[in-house]
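Onboarding guide, step 5: your first structure request.
Type a short instruction followed by the sequence, for example:

Predict the 3D structure of this protein.
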Amino acid sequence: MFGFPKVSVIMSGEDFLSIFEQRRRLRRAKVIVDLTSEMIRNEQSLTYREAVNLIDCARRAVGELSPAYGSRFAHRVAPVLERVIRERWPMEEPFVNRAFELVN
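The system replies with structure tokens like these:
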């Protein structure tokens, strides 16, 4: 037969739970990013400052799931979300978010 040989992989319960946990965290990070993006695009009452703070909150939430996700967020996801903000508010000056700023 052609193709790859069949390899049987025996995983311990801990390995399976570890993979399950990683997938669960990745799904949660994806949901956070998707909800943030949709909210910035579609929420009419959202202000520019609130949108910037949403990105910052999403960055912290994803970073708490895994440090690797946090660095991936900074390099791949944040620029996309910032582009969405620039498209929605093209006349706004770039807003520098101060640490620990709360928006009601």
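Each response can be followed by summary notes, for example: Residues 13-42 form the longest helix (30 residues).
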